[in-house]
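quick one, 551 residues, struct below
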Amino acid sequence: MKKLFILRRAFVINRILIRYGLDEFISQTPIAKYNLLLKLFALTPSKYRNLSRGERLNLALTELGPIFIKLGQMLSTRRDLLSDDLARSLAKLQDDVEPFSSQLAIKTIEKHLDKPLEDIFETFDESPLASASVAQVHSAKLLSGENVVVKVIRPGIKRKILADIKLLELLAQWFEQNSEIGKRIHPIQVVKDYKDSLFNELDLRIEAANTTQLKRNFENSELLYVPDIYWQYTRKRVMLQEMVYGVPIGDIEQLKEAGVDMQKLAHRGVEIFFTQVFRDSYFHADMHPGNIFVNCKDPKNPSYIAIDCGIMGTLNESDKRYLAQNFVAFFNRDYRRIAELHVQSGWVSKQVSIEEFESAIRTACEPIFGKSLADISFGHFLVQLFQTARRFEMEVQPQLVLLQKTLLYIEGLGRQLYPQLDLWETAQPFLKKWLADTYGPWAAVEKIKHKAPRWLEELPEIPEKISDFLSSSKHQSKQQQLLINSIDAMRQSTNLNSKRIKWALLGVSFILISLVELPAQLSPGLIDRTWLNGLLIGLGLASFAVSFRRQ
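---
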């Protein structure tokens, strides 16, 4: 059944790509062998042939469903990997997916808020403000006068996601079981994490909570603004939030017309990202251009506006520390330190040669130093890193997958905003300061100051705790000695029993032999059978006696 499911889904994917005249994209894939058969059944209306390649790809990904739409969203930010026509068309997937029926949206709102529309809104625009892969939004005005955005989950979207996730799970399982590379990159865990993040997007209460947390983290910040949530009107499939006004970050021409300082905007984007990751351990993990706007009221000091917090990423303290130290070592071109950190963190086996790993990292990293984003091929750079990973059996860390995806978004946005941006020079001072603030001498002093009140409170109890500890240690020592003595006694008893069993078996053997008839070839004249049997029985009884004797 699993193989049938995979073949059926592969058939559908192939047919859709052919329908839109995109079979060129799969001509080098394993399912290409089905093309001839599929072309007999694929519908290829002539109207699609008049569309550009990018427009046809946009339509195909939209028909394939939300997982493929999100893939297109990510690729749309990678102008270095895609041609301009494809990048422009895929950018429309960020907030320009074909909307579903407004009447169905209204029905969903009234059902989940348990009120007719007129009891909630003074006005409600039935034409969607934007439409994305999982939900669409409508503008409205509450009876209390506030302008809001109403977000509604697409009907039937969970069933579509489950179908593609099932295919990905089966492929990931096969890949991990049958490929050495698959064992290192953990595709099963990656798909599981992706599945969890997608299902989180289907519950708008989770997005509302994420939005509230991100807003709290950047409260009173001049870098990032996050809209308010109206919790009284928020349910699993419906969410209301504050209407915000800004220029989409992907609209470069409008930003330039507004006189926005593009260099400062790019630098602030990098700062926001590293602040979320290293200061807060909580970052927006779906930062495609459809979710980011720019407040242009002060063009010389532009700020960001973030929406759609359905997917958020977190890092533990260990991952943060190793990442920051790796970044700083990278900035300083300290490739040996990078190699050592990878081994210490467990990302690479301790059996690898540090010298060889250092050399491989140097080969991958050196070409990109001192270049602007416009001059760097990150696609080529990532291929080199992947080759390095394969050579040294570096394991992909599932907890870092969202961070890696977000880094791709950040790099893509930086390239569009200010191609001359030196990402490394921008991030280096921030990371060095963060490391110093978090793990430097003053950080240790601050931790002591923070814990001092608790230590003072517990100070009177310390002598008693030390006494209890020593008593416990003595008791444990006695228990350990008793255990050792017991083990020795068990070992001696086992040896004794083993010897007894050997003597007993020997005794049994002698007695059994005495009961067996002598071979006919032996002459009775040579051996007195009675005397021999008596001797054997005597030896058997003696052996039994020895087996019961105390050693």
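The longest strand covers residues 135-142.
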